[in-house]
Structure formats: C-alpha cells, structure tokens
Amino acid sequence: MKKRILILGGGFGGLYTALELDKTIAKRDDIEVTIVNRENFILFTPMLHEVAASDIDLTHIVNPIRKMLRRVNFFHAEVEAIDLHSKIVRVAHSENRHVHDLPYDYLVIALGCTTNFFHLPGLEETAFTMKSLGDAIRVRNHIIDGLEAADFECAAGDRDQLLTVVVAGGGFSGVETIAGINDFLRDATRLYSHLSEDRIRLVLVHPGAFILPELGESLGRYTQKRLVERGVEVRVNTRVTAVRDGVVELNDGAQIPTRTLIWTAGTAAHPLCADLPCATDKGRVKVNEFLEVEGWPGVYSLGDCANVPDPATGKPYPPTAQHAIRQGKVLAGNIAAAIDGSEKHPFRFKTLGLLAAIGRRVGVANILGIKFSGVIAWFLWRTIYLMKLPGFEKKVRVAIDWTLDVLFTKDIVQFQTGRSSTMNEHEK
Questions:
Q1: Which of 17, 81, 406, 409 is the most exposed place for a label (fewest CB within 10 A)?
Q2: Helix residue spans in 30-132 (DSSP H)
Q3: Is 0.70 topped by the overall pTM?
Q4: Which fold is adopted by the domain 123-265+353-407?
Q5: What homologous superfamily is domain 3-38+77-115+268-340 in, according to CATH?
Q6: How does pLDDT run across 86-105, given as a tens digit for each residue?
Q7: CB-based contact 178:186 (threshold 8 Å)
Q8: Strands across the sheet containing 247-250
Q9: Which is higher by pLDDT, 360 or 381?
C-alpha cells in the first residue's frame, strides 16, 4: 500500500514542503502526496501592500499551486477538523461545502495564522486587515471609493473623515502598508478637482517606543523620521482601544474620525491548532528540532502555526517566510528519512536579513548585520524579493509593473466583483 503524505496549508511552509517532495520521493510508486489549501494559489505576501497601493497588478503576486507541482496532488478545500487519533482530516470544498475525509500516514500541519483583534470593541466589525489578496483588493477599493465620495461638494462635511486612514501596528506589514497608501493618495488627489493633498491624513499607531522594532532602534527611528517628513503622523507608545461610530479611540484619550482603520497589530495561530491534543504554546503547535510533534509519530508542523525551537537563543524561530521556506525543505527530507529509516536532520537557520520598503523609493534593511537605508535599501528590497517571487513569468510581470509605475501615475480603477445589473432590477 502507498504511504500517504498529507500537507495542510499552501503557504510558504506547506508549499515548499510539497515542492521538495515533488522533486524527491513523490516520484516513487509507493508514495502519494497531497496538499490541501483553501485557495488554489500561493500568495507572495511581502508584496501584498503594493497591490493595495496600486503599484503592481493583483494577479502578479500569486501563482497557481497546480502549475507548480507535477507529482503532488492538489486538493482545493478548507480544513474543518483534524483527528490525530484516527489519522483522518476532514475537509470541505465548493459552495455547497461538500465534505471529504482524507486519511494519512504522515501529516504536515502548515495552516498559518489568522488576525487577532484581542476582543477590542468594534474592531472586528469595522477594521480592514492585510493578510490575503482579498484584503488588499478591499483596502484598495475602499480607499478609491473614499476619494470618489470626497470629491463631491455634498461630502464637504465628511471630507476629512473620508480622507483619513489609520493603520494600527508599526511592524513590517503596518509600515509598508501606510507608506504605500500615503504615496498612492498623494499621487491620486491630483486627479480630483475638489481635493488637495493637504486634506489627506494618515496616522500610524504603534504600541512600542519606535516602529519596525525587528530592525533595531536606529533604523526604526530613521523610518519614523522619513514617514513624518512625508506627512504621516506616527504615534508611538499608543494603542487602539475601540472603534465607535466612525471614530478610532486611542489609549491616550485621542479620537480620530475615520472610515478606514487597517489592523496589522496582532496575529494568532490557526484556530484548529488550539484544538489538537498535542502540546501548544499560545496556540502554536510545539515541535522538536526535527519539526516533529512529539507524542504523535508521523505528525509534523512548521511555519506560522508552529513553535520551532531555536537552540541558539532558546526561543522559537520567528514566523517569517525565509524560515518557513527552509523549514519546508528540511521537513521534506525528514519525512523521507522516516519512511526509509535513514538519518533525520535538525532545522538550523540564522536570519539572513530583514527589509522594508517605506515609500518613494526609500527603504531600510539589515542584511547579515549590516544596516542600509535610503535608495540602496529600497533597491535591495526590490531585487531580493523579485528573486524570491515564484515563477519566471511573474518576475517579468512585476518588473514591468515597477517600470510603468516610474513612468506613469498610479491606477485608480476599482476592481468590482458584483454582478452587473439586470432588467428585473431596473423594473423594481
């Protein structure tokens, strides 16, 4: 009988495990590998903010999973339950939620993380997030809709609220999002006769003493200075406490009227991980150095939903793409070793570098301990992430998008997905 390897999640960790298996033991007749993902593509999240800011086309940072795999089966479905005792995973697919029970011999849990609103009043109902392609499209459409509405004379009383954007969270996602949106709004106002750049207000709220703490204080404060020079208000040592009646409330008592709050300040492991009968840490599945879930032979976990120990620091490895990709390659080798009875290899990796684009051809970076800022860091950001973007075709398309962005103004077309109007609707 075939050994069945089941991978849950098509993010960086899950997909790169599948890609490595696709090149190795998936060639064998006694091995069957299946990957399950709720989308039929992998999203290159480091460039997500550029979709929201209209820098690149929305289809250019996604790759169809089926197109990337030759021998690994792809199952387009959402995971509903994991039964470690029976070695069965329940999934549902299509609009009618048709259910399948998938048995396995070896299981890889790579379900990623979800947004955590910390039960703050009004947040989940009103805030935008920036974790999926749909999130970026919604943010982009909403911002353009605000520009269109604010350009009418009848909206004069609401204009400030329509043109105010608050981003909560001063990490990579929050900083890159607000920097991109700031450039987009200030560029787009020239196309609206009743709007001016001085009416735009962007506010970045961060609970720490300086933004981008992952890059250190000097680069964090440099980033803060550059954003302020471009018109962004940066509020450090501050938190969002609630959203009520179109007003964002902060813990220092300030109230900011806005219709656009983008929440990047909290994540949590996938909810299914907390329900598993194995050891977890803050919802993340605890694994050993071989990425094995101890006490459950044949079960592995990696990526954002896993707590992978770093022997050098005694702390878990950070949940970044560069770690997840390398974890996937190591894990694929360890699954093959478990099947063949050969030697396993521990996961060992030191962060190569961290980069952020902060708008207007400026960036910050820390690569192998060397700090960069300005146009050099921005060039490094684009070069490195273009190299990491899966698929030669997508690399070419993104490079063309970036070239056109230098030559022309940003596109302000909304991507509407609703059905066109019908005769019956007009008669009503």
A1: 406
A2: 48-52, 65-68, 123-126
A3: yes
A4: FAD/NAD(P)-binding domain (3.50.50)
A5: FAD/NAD(P)-binding domain (3.50.50.60)
A6: 999 999 999 899 999 999 99
A7: no
A8: 240-244, 247-250, 255-257
A9: 381
